[in-house]
Amino acid sequence: MQVPVYLITGFLESGKTTFIEQVILEGNFVEDEKTLLILTEEGEAEIEPELLEQYNVDVVTVEDKEEFTLDFLKKCRREHRPQQVIIEYNGMWPVSEFIQMQLPYRWELFQVVTTVDASTFQLYMNNMRSLMADILTCTQMAIFNRCNEETTDISYLIRNVKVLNSRAELIFEAENGDILDPGEDILPYDVNQDIIEIDDDNYGIWYLDALDHGERYEGKQVVIKGMVFRSKNFEDGYFVPGRMAMTCCADDVTFLGFLCKSKFASRLKNKQWVRVTAEVHLEHRDEYHGIGPVLYARRIEKAIKPEEDMVYFN
Fold first, then answer.
1. Residue 5 bridge partners (DSSP)
2. pTM
3. Which residues sit opposite 243 in a β-bridge?
4. Tens digits of residue pLDDT in 246-271
5. What count of other Cβ atoms lies within 10 Å of the Cβ of residue 8?
């Protein structure tokens, strides 16, 4: 029998303990089975011992990262014999290291959930971007709590997560605990135009929207400016026009772009700037590991490098 492991991560006071308490009360994970809760940091909130006893939850605490080892987890398995495990994971410990870590026999990482205080998200992104990026890249669900319906820019939150992890499920909670509907993004261009022209400043927004809502662009023409990337691994007649984007820090950037088919692809040079008019179609491609937008070039022109060639998601 497999033992599912749920990793709950996020920075101190981001709402991890409150989320775990809700999970226990609602019975989403624990039901009548023995649950082991491993705590790796001490926050202000604590779960009442009576609640833990009522729902058959054993608690183990470890505060030193050096002690959080396979041997420690094996000991937990022997002593508690849990049927499921919840780990409240220290937000200062890289999640990527846990994902690469070997787990005890039959323990299997089932889900990574990240709690985020929406009111401090931008502060952390500005000052601890690498650590925040590590967390968000690995998460499967991010819960943004303490959202203010008047002042929280949900579109900003979505863009910054999706550029790191396009598959993450995002949930937004108001300060009173209500779930907020993020609604449709208000795009800075009209997707109903016959030809959709994407300004240099809007490239990142277009890229993420086409990634998440490719159906909006199916069969339509777009005009973008990008830098040419060609690879010997591409089929003949394909290249990628794209832009560099900052994801974690100034030293950690990634190239954002979609495959483009053109009979002139072989004439293009890497890092050459071009203006591409292309028709968009959603196709299954190995390069995407699934379905994604493929551009069919109608016109390719030489272009001047934008004043700001780096894409940001602020």
1. 85, 109
2. 0.74
3. 256
4. 765 555 688 999 999 999 999 999 99
5. 23
The CA-to-CA distance between both ends of the chain, in Å, stands at: 45
Residue 93's Cα: distance from chain center in Å? 18
| CA trace torsion 122, 126, 127, 133 (10° rounding) | 80
Residues of 84-96 as b/e, b for ≥16 C-beta within 10 angstroms?
bbbbbbbbebbbe
Given a contact cutoff of 8 angstroms between Cβ atoms, the answer to whether 157 and 172 are in contact is: yes
**Tens digits of residue pLDDT in 59-90:** 999 989 999 999 999 999 999 999 999 999 99
What confidence score (pLDDT) does residue 275 get?
Answer: 97
Q: What pLDDT is attached to residue 30?
A: 53
